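ok trying this again, last paste got cut off
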Amino acid sequence: MTTLIKIARSGTITPEIEAVAKAEGISPHKLRARIASGKAIIVRNVKYENKIKPLGIGQGLFTKVNVNVGTSELVNNLELELEKVRIAKAYGADTLMDLSTGGDIDSIRRAIIKESRPLPLGTVPTYQIFIESFKRKGGGAYFTEDELFNTIEKHLRDGVDFMTIHAAITKDIGLKLIRSNRIIKIVSRGGDMILGWMLYNDSENPFYKNYDYLLELFAEYDAVISLGDALRPGSIADALDEFHVAELINNARLARRAIEYGVQVMIEGPGHVPLHLVKTDVKLMKRLSGGVPYYVLGPLPIDIAAPYDHIAAAAGASIAAAAGADLLCYLTPAEHLSLPTPEQVKLGLIATKIAAHIGDVVKYGSRAMKKDLEVSKLRAEVEIRKTIPYLISPEDAEAVFKQFGVAPSKGCTMCGGYCPLLLLKEQMQKASKK
């Protein structure tokens, strides 16, 4: 299989590269070079019959936002999850992940894939094999390595474009972790499943041990490996501890191997990180990996924000994006408390999109500020109605603008006729007549 990285290395600019470069406002030659070196990716699965919209993630590209959906063991309602997909599409998500753990996982995944297009979709195949092993064999850790990789290939055949693969947590690191004084030893569901498998089977991580075979699979479909952070900190007190950093070092090495092989890859990041260490984490990851795209959850700079984790995460995410993070995974108000409702999905997505844009203004300046400047110019003319189409959520902005049943032609109901801009315009008009 001639993968996109190999095509880019040959000097060829594909239609996908052209489309992404145009959408991002950069040179296709620069984008091709970044794909060739692994500093940027275009998410795809070449064997999927319905093409997705080309989406670039990485160096020099606008920060993207991912939305997680999926059933749980206790709340299994496919229509609810499909409604979340529709909301994610309506409010501007760039990618989706199906994290289903309840019900018929195959059927749910295929329905979510169909509903999610043209957005790229990711999964965590470890969830499915662990749950199925528990149901069939009485224990989640009883699956074989062949069953694990067969599940991955099934997801690829279904059209999954990227997958979280927890390959960097090794048996040695796992044994040290369970004996450590870490406050919250592990919060990654997929990472915990792999750790449990290693301990039960007294064997090395099957992803780590069979990494070359994993690369062969992903090369065949030219899909993206998202190297998971099984040891991401679940408490701000654990941020950048030996386990967090050890896994990051392993992920950087695995990412470089993937790029050498010709497989597109990104690395996943934390997690709970105090605000002053967020930039450190991003810069460390970029330094270790040579600039591989970074996909971060949050980061959450405090541990007490639930049910407002989406606000706390937006603070951390804006710093992460400004420092160089490339894809932000949203958090909702339900984080740490519940499966989210559709409305909570919307709130989490909007908060994260704001954080992404804050980061892009820092990274790219005027290239990212086009809408901001239009809004500022219209506000200067007191044309508040006309700013609404440029805002993050025009529908919500329109509702707030009219919420008291009074919608002035100029200004808004906060200042009314005492708007400083309106008063200044009157004073300037009077002064010009003298």
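PB: full thing came through this time. The first strand starts at residue 40 and ends at 43.
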